Amino acid sequence: MVGIYRSRFLSLVIVILFTTMVQVFVWVAFSSLYLPDPSTSHSLNTDRMDRDKECKCPTRDPESETCAPPKTEEVGRDEGDREQRMDIDDDRDYLEGLGVLKDSQHYLLVALVLSGPDSKSRERRDTIRETWKTYSNPTEEPAILVLFVMGTFELSAPQLESVTHENQQHHDLVLLPNLKESYYNLTLKVLQAFVWADQNLRFSYLLKCDDDSFVMLHQIADELSERTSTQSYYWGFFDGRATPKKGGKYIEKEWFLCDRYLPYALGGGYVVSADLVHKVALMSDGVRLYNNEDTSLGVWLSPFRAERRHDSRFDTEFKSRGCRNNYLVTHKQSPGEMRTKHELLQSKGMICEQETAVRKAYEYNWLVEPSKCCQRK
Ligand SMILES: *[C@@H]1O[C@H](CO)[C@@H](O)[C@H](O)[C@H]1NC(C)=O
Predict the structure, then answer these.
(1) Which residues, given as ranges, of the chain have pLDDT below 50?
(2) Which residue stretches does the UniProt record annotate as biased composition, category Basic and acidic residues (predicted)?
(3) What is the pLDDT of residues 194-232, one digit of tens each?
């Protein structure tokens, strides 16, 4: 009896020893395969050793716990390339999710519609999808792409789920993960949207508008395609005499350049050529963010040679000037008004049953001081 137990005990020990050896062997083999190559561990790694390895930095800054820029040029190029590759791969996945990448198509016009995660904005997006967005066709000439932009930083789980679901349906959302939706972040939102477009899309012109703007997409695209040069173009309804607010909701604390804002196109809708978008993207790290996002763009673009084309067919002030059939953009439209315009456009080829004028427009006089630029007559 005792002999049987001993031999069973011995074989158990042998089995345990064997499996342990196998485990150790497998572990060693796999860790030698994967661990030493930092390019496969992603930057989400928070372990200090991994981070050191990943950044390969002899000069890790102990204060900020981040990697100081590598000293030698060779390491720098290597790391930079890798980071860039990762970014491109991430963006590629994301863009394929959007359904816009495909053959890295070139768009004549990309419309970025600033929108939000709330249900009212959702209704506006759906209205735009059923109305003026139907005039965009990414694959036919002129190639036009319409995308809605919103920040997703600190969104609630249900909001994020709803937005994700919406994007799976429509593939037309640009979700900015580092942007918290808030009135005081609008300028940052425009800036990030410009940077995103510059890095991810090939296009000639960008139209920025709001989700309560009715846009005559095909007409804008037609006029753009007739231009001989696509360079340095800033097209909209300009203001050069606006004074920064000294108090209230729209208070402008950062402004110090002069008594008035610099000339800028009003935000209900304007067009900027891709080269100017690129210049803004290049400066994006260092530019001052004013409270007013439209003003901010005017300032960012102020040093650059560009054709600033004032056009009163952009009805883009804080309230609509009325209805005119030649309007390219009509701001402050309710979903109902958008549908009415769309139906008229489809049935009669016009957006106003009867033209109305609530307030006058002005022509911008570039030959006088900006404070006298904009006389309504
Ligand atoms: C703006 O966005 C940033 C980053 O998303 C966030 O940390 C900040 O609180 C936001 N600012 C406001 C005023 O909401």
Answers:
(1) 1-2, 12-16, 22, 24-89, 103
(2) 45-63, 71-87
(3) 999 999 999 999 999 999 999 999 999 999 999 999 999
- The tokens for 241 are 């005499």
Measure 125 CA to ligand 1 centroid, in angstroms: 24
The answer to whether 273 touches 301, Cβ cutoff 8 Å, is no
Per-domain residue ranges of the chain? 54-92, 105-312
Supply 24's token pair.
């150790």
Nearest-CA residue for ligand 1 atom 14 is: 182
Mutational test site, ligand 1, from 149, 178, 180, max ligand atoms within 8 Å of CB: 180
**CATH of region 105-312:** 3.90.550.10
Residue with tokens 């606006």: 242
Centre of ligand 1 to C-alpha 9, Å, is 66
For residue 151, the ligand 1 atom closest to its alpha carbon is 5
What pLDDT is stored for residue 140 in this prediction? 87
The pTM score is 0.75
Quote the CA–CA distance of 266 and 65 in Å, as a whole number.
43
The C-alpha atoms of residue 144 and residue 115 are separated, in whole angstroms, by 19
Query: How many whole angstroms separate alpha carbon 146 and alpha carbon 148?
Result: 7
Q: Helix/strand/coil (H, E, C) string of 124-150?
A: HHHHHHHCHHHHCCCCCCCCEEEEEEE
pLDDT tens per residue across span 320-336: 999 999 999 999 999 99
Residue 6 is predicted with a pLDDT of 59
Is the Cβ–Cβ distance between 109 and 144 less than 8 Å?
yes
| Ligand 1 pocket mutation pick from 150, 152, 153 by most atoms within 8 angstroms of CB | 153
Which atom of ligand 1 lies nearest, measured to the CA of 154? 5
Q: Yes or no: say if 128 and 113 are a contact pair by the CB < 8 Å rule.
A: yes
54-102 per-position pLDDT tens digit: 333 333 333 333 333 333 333 333 333 334 433 444 555 555 555 555 5
Q: Which atom of ligand 1 is nearest to the CA of 178?
A: 5
